[in-house]
Amino acid sequence: MTGHVLVAPDKFKGSLTAAEVAEAVTAGLRGRMPAVAVRGSPVADGGDGTVRAALATGRFERSLVRVTGPTGRRVDAEIAVGETTAVVELASASGLALLAPGEFDPLRASSHGTGELIVAALDAGVSGIVLGVGGSACTDGGAGMLTALGARLSDAAGNPLSPGGGGLERIAEADLSGLDPRLADVDLVLASDVDNPLCGSSGAAHVYGPQKGASAEQVRRLDGALERFAEVIGRATGESAADRPGAGAAGGVGYGAMTALSARFRSGSDVVLELVDFDRDLAGAALVVTGEGALDEQTLHGKVPAAVAARAAEAGVPTVAVAGKCSLSRQRLRDGGFTAVYALAHLQPDPARSIEGAAHLLQRVGEHIADDFL
């Protein structure tokens, strides 16, 4: 075989990080063909795993930051700091994965810690910040994030709001004059694979609120609170952006970032592929291996494996996918640019055992890929 194999997977959520997936597949490939040239390039879609993908390049340094978690408990989060750019991951500060199921608090969970991470990035002196959003525990429109950055949000009596989306039901005024002045000199990119608007049936509360523990009544309240928040922020900024794609990302953090912080919305997959210099690693490749925990219709709509396959196709390089399970038909896989898919469910149909033994199963998959393609 002429050329190398580029192994560029996303995480297997709840099982393996993207780097661990890449390591297991690589071990399988080399187990069959010890001399094969393999390049590992773990990727992400802007959600959890984005900072780790940046750190894996070796061009960013890890910085540990103590911040306020989604329900007020202090947590340790990390950012990746490069020469000119810092990568901030909402999930590490305000993510649902930080809470046990019994701790979900849809009305009071806050994005405050994400704002504290942005402050840490500003302290690092960078000129650009990538804000990767996804997996949030909050539906607060980014109110907590803005407060951490110096904004003052208050009720009709001038009192500060309580944390979370529920507190937005009382919002009457937004004073953004106290926002950290360093934000004006920073290019802030909102990296997300979610293009939902802020409010309505396809908005942040209705689509994602139930995943965060919100009842039907709480969803209704949160949606109304976000509408009120948008009215107040719209008056403060002179801009109505509630219907912009990405406004509903991360419980509305996308809205707060794009309006009050002038963030640019971009596909999280594209942003991460640029961060890890994917095109450089793709040059000269004979085969690309990508994947994620579940290959389904969502994969074909903004998820990073589809973005990897699209770039590989442009370069004339075939792409195969690895996954815990796959619900896509052969035709849909071809539509997505995948030559073949290797699902762990075919090797181990018991989901619990598949998750527990994912690394070993992926190594076996790597062996099968070597037999079939190399």
UniProtKB/TrEMBL annotation:
Pfam families assigned: Gly_kinase (PF02595)
Entry keyword Methyltransferase: no
The organism's place on the tree of life at top rank: Bacteria
GO annotation terms (biological process): organic acid phosphorylation
Xref: InterPro entries: Glyc_kinase_flavodox-like_fold (IPR018193), Glycerate_kinase (IPR004381), Glycerate_kinase_RE-like (IPR018197), Glycerate_kinase_sf (IPR036129)
Entry keyword Iron: no
Gene Ontology molecular function: any one: glycerate kinase activity
UniProt entry keywords in alphabetical sequence: Kinase, Transferase
Family named by the database record: Belongs to the glycerate kinase type-1 family.
Record NCBIfam families: glycerate kinase
PANTHER family recorded: GLYCERATE KINASE
Name listed for the protein in its UniProt record: Glycerate kinase
Species this chain originates from: Actinopolyspora mzabensis
